[in-house]
Amino acid sequence: MRTNPEVLAVDLGGTNIRLGIVTPQGRLARRRRGRIPPPSTPEALYDSLVTRITGFIGSGGATARLGAVAVGFAGPTSSASGYVYCAPNLGQLEGLQMATHLERRLGVPVLVANDADCAAIGEYWRGAGRGAKSLFLFTLGTGVGGSLVIDGRLWEGERGIAGEIGHTVIALGGPRCSCGNQGCLEALVSATAIVRDYVAARKIKPPAESRITAKMVFDRARGGDKVAQRVIAGAAGALGVGIANVFNLLDPELILIGGGVSRAGSRLIGPAVKQAGQLLFAPLREYLRVRRTSLGDDAALLGAARLAFERILT
Amino acid sequence: MRTNPEVLAVDLGGTNIRLGIVTPQGRLARRRRGRIPPPSTPEALYDSLVTRITGFIGSGGATARLGAVAVGFAGPTSSASGYVYCAPNLGQLEGLQMATHLERRLGVPVLVANDADCAAIGEYWRGAGRGAKSLFLFTLGTGVGGSLVIDGRLWEGERGIAGEIGHTVIALGGPRCSCGNQGCLEALVSATAIVRDYVAARKIKPPAESRITAKMVFDRARGGDKVAQRVIAGAAGALGVGIANVFNLLDPELILIGGGVSRAGSRLIGPAVKQAGQLLFAPLREYLRVRRTSLGDDAALLGAARLAFERILT
């Protein structure tokens, strides 16, 4: 075992990849980001990943103290086995033995965990969740993830696949979700959902349609676009239902909201918290604490690394 | 401390009360049941409870080995403090210091916990949950409760109020719930909801309306009543959504279904599990395990007693 080892942390989202080096003290350095092409097969995904990681190492990204690689992955994943049950935002790839495959090709220990789980541990370790005994994190991005920390430990579920708040149904018969069901939280508050609703309300046709992003909708709302404001208000209402559902079911000390979509800030989070409060039993409202995450994109990198420090490098 | 003490366990639902004596080995004896009038004030509720409990003791219900009274209560309750945040099925009584009050009047240690939490621990200890490392229990009655057991311990939340699956919203804009919101799971699968839907579909008017019970609707469905069958199928579909939501969010080893409404058996649980399976990511379906509870009304009595043994009588 190397003394004072470092972890190469990787955050692999639906379309983006980020890398960085994390020290045992939780310092994150030498960040790099990029895009990965939508993979057609698990092998294509591994190839992309290995190319990115070895490229990062080769260009001086890693040091002689590299002890492990830790990957936060956007799909139901068991961090105990590194098994990815499915990859709904990566062309529905199923059954990836990701940790095993990457270990074989990289020659260092590899931990793979769900990206929202990593972000929750990252925020708990170094961010907005410091000091909370329990927390639930909503990660709002292309999809919607979730993660539960109880007494400082992830509750990943019996198979390591807990936290899929994005695929809990809150609106029976509602809009179609990427998973095929209707009315999932993800189908109402993800970046995808916000773009879909704005494009529909503005009757924007291809090819202009493909250039609309959630960030543009937020920018337009800020600039006074009433349609954009209405779309975001709808997403905020649905997020409020999700927050109330989590509070009612799990009663965590703290609820955190992170991910790209959360950067909309007050226009999304404020109304969502108000809606959540209205849905709670009146005597319980005072206990609702909701905060934005503070680490941004670094949370998943830090949390993935923290899990590797705890489980591989101790 | 008495050697080999026994616990007087009380299960206090929306309208019914049950009492019994539990030994440290989990034997339940001298059960008694009755009804309590809807209380107008906390004091009226305490009076009813104390009358029932002392009557039970006085009539030979308890023994010289009585070590504690343990109450399972139908509302958000902290078992650590015995504080009842609110009592939505008892005329919206709020802020009951139930354990403190009962202790003062009964002269023995009193533990008060949420009834669904008690039932979950009861099933984990002596029933259908034996051997499971984690489980989630749905309790379907006048209302809908829930409870989460992780690694053999209740997760009651930071304030002791977790598990309110009945008031998670699954159908935005759906039927009105007892809590005032719309589309809560409880508004779709409780006994109350089943009666409401049947009465509406059959256009049954007062006074006949007030005589319809969920049990009658189940009996009629069994007897071929197509309207009753349709109402129960609707409830089963909603329960399936609730099951899928819990599985996606918490990934427990086992999901249990208990409470009076669950006695409808195969007509409710079978379609609910089928619906839940269809809502899960295909690779995760094989992990879904749903069972009916096996202890019936005894679960809450046994579980309340178990908590008292663990926390008061060790």
Compact summary:
The structure is a homodimer of 314-residue chains. Chain A has 314 residues and is of the alpha/beta class.
Could you explain how this protein is built, in words?
- The structure is a homodimer of 314-residue chains.
- The first copy, chain A, has helices at 42-61, 98-106, 115-126, 186-189, 191-201, 214-222, 226-250, 266-279, 298-311; strands at residues 6-12, 16-22, 28-35, 66-73, 77-78, 83-87, 93-96, 110-114, 134-140, 144-150, 153-154, 254-258, 290-292.
- The N and C termini of chain A lie close together (9 Å).
- In chain A, a hairpin with a 5-residue loop joins strand 6 and strand 7.
- Chain A contains nine helices and 13 strands.
- Chain A is globular and about 55 Å long.
- In chain A, the strands form three sheets. A five-stranded mixed β-sheet of chain A has the order 3-2-1-4-8, sandwiched between helices. The first copy, chain A, has a five-stranded mixed β-sheet with strand order 11-10-9-12-13, sandwiched between helices. In chain A, strands 5-6-7 form a three-stranded antiparallel β-sheet, covered by helices on one side.
- Chain A is 38% helix and 22% strand.
- The first copy, chain A, is α/β, with parallel strands linked by helices and 314 residues long.
- In chain A, helix 3 crosses helix 9 (298-311) and helix 7 crosses helix 8 (266-279).
- Chains A and B meet through strand 10 and helix 7 of A and strand 10 and helix 7 of B.
Keywords:
globular, 314 residues, homodimer, 5-stranded mixed beta sheet, 9 helices
